[in-house]
Amino acid sequence: MSGHQTKGDKPDCRDSQPLQLAHQAQLDKRQTILRASISKLEQQIQETETQLQEVTSKLRSPEKASQTVRDHIHLLHAYNEIRDIGQGLLGLIAEARGARHIDIQNEFGVTTED
Q: Which segments does the entry list as coiled coil (predicted)?
């Protein structure tokens, strides 16, 4: 055998062309599916970013959070002062009547948790 190819040894280009077309069609189909998937994911990202912006806009800023904490502390101090005054008045009533403090609290509907 010499190193020359005969016509029967060579692959026929016409035989591989349908395979190449089928392969290209599969690649095109996959590419279309991937593009649709990417489009859908981009839309989901946009929707999620919009939701994030909406939620973030509803949140209070750190400055407002600090003010809220200060307001609550102020209200707790005011509550404690009022409660102490109320307990003092109940004590004066109990002393004036010669009754126990707990009995006066029960009479006025004040519990130990109040």
A: 31-58
